[in-house]
Design brief:
Distance between the termini: 53 Å
Order of helices and strands: HHHHHHHHHHEHHEEEHEHEH
Largest sheet: 6 strands, mixed
Shape: elongated
CATH class of the largest domain: Alpha Beta
Number of domains: 2
Structural class: alpha/beta
Domain YhcG N-terminal: 25-157
Organism: Dyadobacter psychrotolerans
Protein name: DUF1016 domain-containing protein
CATH architecture of the largest domain: 3-Layer(aba) Sandwich
Low-confidence stretches: none
Radius of gyration: 24 Å
Number of helices: 15
Helix content: 55-70%
Number of strands: 6
Oligomer: single chain
Domain YhcG PDDEXK nuclease: 182-328
Mean pLDDT: 80
GO molecular function: nucleic acid binding
CATH topology of the largest domain: Trna Endonuclease, Chain: A, domain 1
Strand content: 5-15%
Strand order of the largest sheet: 1-6-5-4-3-2
């Protein structure tokens, strides 16, 4: 190998910023994949031990002596695995809770941290609710405390009340549509922007760009920001997408159109055009159809339904909130005070 050091090219701030952004995304993605693999391996062991205890029909009470001795012997062999009697009973409970569950729920709990699974078992009876919170945790990277808060706020029931306003079922393949339905929500909270008075669409966009990391966290895991006012040129005309993202799981470009007021039917036609241009000009061969999200201050689901009726591009309409819920606002204030100290 040559000892000559390569000459570093001159990079402006924007070019360096893009390198930094991509490096951070690579590290975060790798960490997430590794964490999922570790959790999956651990849960596989716990599942097998729980199945063993269940099949031997051991119950707390008469079986306590057996499990206690098993814990002692296993800890001598594997001292770092958390094989206390209580945890062994939890493994049995884990197996018996989910062994008849559907595949998607099993896949979700298999990669959750064990503490999250214990919380789901302690706080929930419904398997549908467990699936919802497990998917939300994986999508948004919730800590155990955030998961507990979501359960206390009954986020599952709130989500069931929200009517999905999109045409994914008609414009995407079944598996892709189901995943898109899980990724995108009906409402997004933009309280982190600190907006307390009316703003114009461009200002809203600029504030989102300034706090793009917070916005990506609100969107959920898997999103990478490509750019704002993304330029598309076709037939000697220029078009600009407010915000353009890429979702790794969906393998789709995601265009977001920001609107200050209530939803209007004509917004759908504009988004349909953007998606056609993105599919024609930007989409790679191995990527899926581009998806559009119209993010507005308010929507009527009947208006959205009729506007999307004959559209062949996948489009969703979501609302945004500019004020934080009371509980989140109090938490934010406490965090700010603690940071100041």
């Amino acid at each position: 190998m040559s000892n000559d050091k390569p000459t570093a090219p001159h990079l402006d701030d924007a070019e360096y910023g893009e390198i930094l952004r991509q490096a951070i995304n690579q590290i975060r993605t790798a960490r997430f994949v590794i964490a999922k693999q570790v959790n999956s391996s651990t849960q596989s062991i716990y599942w097998s031990l729980g199945k063993l205890l269940s099949e031997k029909q051991l119950e707390e009470g008469y079986g306590s002596g057996v499990v206690k001795q098993l814990s002692i012997d296993l800890k001598n062999e594997f001292p770092d695995m958390g094989l206390s009697p209580r945890n062994l009973w939890n493994m049995k409970r884990f197996y018996e809770r989910y062994y008849q569950a559907d595949t998607k729920l099993l896949q979700a709990v298999a990669v959750l941290p064990w503490g999250h699974n214990l919380l789901l078992m302690d706080k929930l009876q419904s398997l549908e609710a467990a699936r919802f919170y497990a998917n939300e945790t994986l999508t948004k990277g919730w800590s155990r405390d955030l998961l507990l808060n979501a359960i206390k706020m009954d986020s599952y029931s709130q989500a069931q009340k929200q009517i999905k306003t999109h045409n994914f079922d008609h414009t995407l393949l079944e598996a892709h549509a189901e995943y898109a339905n899980e990724v995108f929500r009906s409402t997004y909270n933009l309280g982190f922007l600190g907006i307390t008075e009316p703003v114009k669409e461009l200002e809203l966009e600029n504030r989102l760009i300034a706090k793009i990391r917070s916005f990506i966290l609100e969107l959920g895991k898997g999103f990478s920001f490509i750019g704002n006012q993304y330029r598309l040129e076709y037939n000697a005309k220029e078009y600009f997408v407010d915000m353009l993202f890429f979702h790794r799981g969906l393998r789709s470009l995601v265009a977001i159109d920001l609107k200050i007021g209530s939803f209007k039917a004509e917004y759908v036609g504009k988004m349909n055009l953007y998606l056609s241009l993105l599919d024609r000009l930007e989409k790679s061969e191995n990527e899926n159809s581009s998806i559009g999200i119209i993010l507005c201050a308010d929507k009527d689901h009947l208006d959205v339904e009729i506007a999307l009726q004959d559209i062949n591009k996948p489009i969703g309409v979501a609302e945004y909130q500019l004020l934080l819920p009371k509980a989140e606002l109090q938490s934010l204030i406490l965090n700010e005070l603690n940071a100041a100290k």
